[in-house]
Design brief:
Helix content: 25-40%
CATH architecture of the domain at 24-126: Beta Barrel
Order of helices and strands: HHEEEEEEHH
Number of helices: 4
Length: about 170
Amino acid sequence: MIRALLFVALAAFALVGAGEAQACVCAKQPLDERLDDADAAVVARLVEVRETSSFPPQRTLSFEVDQRVKGDIEETFELRSSAQTDCELDVEEDVPVGLLLTRKPGGEWQGTACSIVGAGDLVAEGGEPRGGGIKIVIGLLILALVLSWALRRKVRGTRPRLPGAPDP
Protein backbone atom coordinates (compact mmCIF):
# COMPACT_ATOMS: atom_id res chain seq x y z
CA MET A 1 0.00 0.00 0.00
CA ILE A 2 2.78 2.43 0.91
CA ARG A 3 4.64 1.51 -2.25
CA ALA A 4 1.54 2.22 -4.34
CA LEU A 5 1.06 5.62 -2.69
CA LEU A 6 4.75 6.39 -3.11
CA PHE A 7 4.56 5.43 -6.80
CA VAL A 8 1.48 7.61 -7.35
CA ALA A 9 3.13 10.53 -5.55
CA LEU A 10 6.31 10.21 -7.64
CA ALA A 11 4.29 9.97 -10.86
CA ALA A 12 2.27 13.06 -9.92
CA PHE A 13 5.46 14.92 -9.02
CA ALA A 14 7.02 13.97 -12.36
CA LEU A 15 3.95 15.19 -14.26
CA VAL A 16 3.81 18.46 -12.32
CA GLY A 17 7.49 19.09 -13.03
CA ALA A 18 7.10 18.39 -16.75
CA GLY A 19 6.63 21.54 -18.82
CA GLU A 20 5.19 21.97 -22.25
CA ALA A 21 6.93 20.31 -25.15
CA GLN A 22 9.55 22.57 -26.67
CA ALA A 23 9.21 23.64 -30.27
CA CYS A 24 12.13 24.57 -32.46
CA VAL A 25 14.12 27.26 -30.64
CA CYS A 26 15.40 30.01 -32.92
CA ALA A 27 17.84 32.75 -31.98
CA LYS A 28 16.14 36.05 -31.23
CA GLN A 29 18.32 38.19 -33.47
CA PRO A 30 17.28 41.09 -35.67
CA LEU A 31 16.89 40.23 -39.33
CA ASP A 32 19.95 42.26 -40.37
CA GLU A 33 22.19 40.19 -38.05
CA ARG A 34 20.64 36.93 -39.25
CA LEU A 35 21.20 38.05 -42.83
CA ASP A 36 24.86 38.80 -42.10
CA ASP A 37 25.32 35.34 -40.56
CA ALA A 38 23.68 33.49 -43.49
CA ASP A 39 25.75 32.18 -46.40
CA ALA A 40 22.93 33.00 -48.82
CA ALA A 41 19.50 34.61 -48.73
CA VAL A 42 16.81 34.29 -51.38
CA VAL A 43 13.13 34.69 -52.04
CA ALA A 44 12.12 31.38 -53.60
CA ARG A 45 9.20 29.04 -54.31
CA LEU A 46 9.07 25.37 -53.33
CA VAL A 47 8.87 23.12 -56.39
CA GLU A 48 9.36 19.57 -55.08
CA VAL A 49 9.88 17.65 -51.82
CA ARG A 50 11.67 14.28 -51.60
CA GLU A 51 12.02 12.20 -48.46
CA THR A 52 15.34 10.40 -48.12
CA SER A 53 15.68 7.01 -46.48
CA SER A 54 18.55 7.92 -44.20
CA PHE A 55 19.04 8.13 -40.49
CA PRO A 56 18.27 10.65 -39.15
CA PRO A 57 15.44 11.23 -41.63
CA GLN A 58 16.13 14.03 -44.11
CA ARG A 59 14.05 15.84 -46.72
CA THR A 60 15.38 17.33 -49.92
CA LEU A 61 13.43 20.38 -51.05
CA SER A 62 13.83 21.87 -54.53
CA PHE A 63 13.32 25.63 -54.87
CA GLU A 64 13.19 28.10 -57.77
CA VAL A 65 14.68 31.50 -56.97
CA ASP A 66 12.51 34.58 -57.50
CA GLN A 67 15.10 37.05 -56.19
CA ARG A 68 18.63 36.74 -54.82
CA VAL A 69 19.30 38.89 -51.78
CA LYS A 70 22.72 37.58 -50.73
CA GLY A 71 25.21 35.03 -51.99
CA ASP A 72 25.85 33.21 -55.22
CA ILE A 73 23.08 30.67 -55.64
CA GLU A 74 21.68 28.94 -58.72
CA GLU A 75 18.24 29.68 -60.22
CA THR A 76 17.10 26.25 -59.01
CA PHE A 77 18.66 24.73 -55.92
CA GLU A 78 18.15 21.86 -53.51
CA LEU A 79 18.03 22.27 -49.76
CA ARG A 80 18.39 19.58 -47.10
CA SER A 81 16.32 19.76 -43.96
CA SER A 82 15.72 17.38 -41.10
CA ALA A 83 12.41 15.52 -41.27
CA GLN A 84 9.96 14.50 -38.57
CA THR A 85 11.27 17.09 -36.09
CA ASP A 86 10.04 20.40 -34.76
CA CYS A 87 12.73 22.19 -36.76
CA GLU A 88 11.94 20.76 -40.19
CA LEU A 89 11.55 23.29 -42.97
CA ASP A 90 7.84 23.29 -43.75
CA VAL A 91 6.64 25.63 -46.51
CA GLU A 92 3.80 25.50 -49.02
CA GLU A 93 4.44 24.77 -52.68
CA ASP A 94 4.53 27.67 -55.15
CA VAL A 95 4.33 30.37 -52.46
CA PRO A 96 7.17 32.93 -52.25
CA VAL A 97 9.13 32.57 -49.03
CA GLY A 98 12.28 34.23 -47.71
CA LEU A 99 15.07 31.78 -46.84
CA LEU A 100 18.31 32.36 -44.93
CA LEU A 101 20.57 29.49 -45.96
CA THR A 102 23.70 27.85 -44.59
CA ARG A 103 26.17 25.93 -46.75
CA LYS A 104 27.38 22.64 -45.29
CA PRO A 105 31.05 21.63 -45.69
CA GLY A 106 30.03 19.29 -48.54
CA GLY A 107 28.64 22.25 -50.47
CA GLU A 108 24.94 21.48 -50.07
CA TRP A 109 22.48 24.04 -48.72
CA GLN A 110 20.83 23.45 -45.36
CA GLY A 111 17.83 25.05 -43.71
CA THR A 112 15.52 24.67 -40.72
CA ALA A 113 12.29 26.25 -39.55
CA CYS A 114 14.46 29.12 -38.27
CA SER A 115 15.60 29.78 -41.86
CA ILE A 116 12.17 31.05 -42.90
CA VAL A 117 11.59 34.81 -42.95
CA GLY A 118 9.00 37.00 -44.62
CA ALA A 119 9.79 37.54 -48.30
CA GLY A 120 8.97 41.25 -48.15
CA ASP A 121 10.99 41.78 -44.98
CA LEU A 122 14.00 40.02 -46.51
CA VAL A 123 13.91 42.07 -49.71
CA ALA A 124 13.43 45.30 -47.74
CA GLU A 125 16.36 44.50 -45.47
CA GLY A 126 18.92 43.33 -47.98
CA GLY A 127 17.49 43.43 -51.46
CA GLU A 128 19.39 45.02 -54.28
CA PRO A 129 17.73 48.08 -55.78
CA ARG A 130 16.23 47.30 -59.15
CA GLY A 131 16.09 49.42 -62.27
CA GLY A 132 19.26 51.43 -61.61
CA GLY A 133 20.26 51.55 -65.28
CA ILE A 134 16.87 52.63 -66.57
CA LYS A 135 16.65 55.36 -63.92
CA ILE A 136 19.97 56.81 -65.12
CA VAL A 137 18.84 56.75 -68.77
CA ILE A 138 15.55 58.48 -67.95
CA GLY A 139 17.38 61.10 -65.85
CA LEU A 140 19.82 61.83 -68.68
CA LEU A 141 16.94 62.18 -71.17
CA ILE A 142 15.17 64.68 -68.91
CA LEU A 143 18.42 66.61 -68.43
CA ALA A 144 18.97 66.71 -72.22
CA LEU A 145 15.44 68.03 -72.81
CA VAL A 146 15.80 70.79 -70.19
CA LEU A 147 19.23 71.85 -71.49
CA SER A 148 18.07 71.90 -75.12
CA TRP A 149 15.04 74.01 -74.17
CA ALA A 150 17.23 76.45 -72.18
CA LEU A 151 19.84 76.74 -74.97
CA ARG A 152 17.17 77.29 -77.60
CA ARG A 153 15.66 80.13 -75.56
CA LYS A 154 19.10 81.66 -74.98
CA VAL A 155 19.94 81.60 -78.70
CA ARG A 156 16.61 83.19 -79.63
CA GLY A 157 17.03 85.79 -76.89
CA THR A 158 13.52 85.42 -75.57
CA ARG A 159 12.73 85.95 -71.97
CA PRO A 160 9.62 84.88 -70.20
CA ARG A 161 7.10 87.59 -69.37
CA LEU A 162 6.45 87.25 -65.70
CA PRO A 163 3.72 89.24 -63.98
CA GLY A 164 5.20 92.07 -61.93
CA ALA A 165 8.67 91.76 -63.49
CA PRO A 166 10.33 94.89 -64.98
CA ASP A 167 10.40 95.27 -68.76
CA PRO A 168 13.83 94.72 -70.34
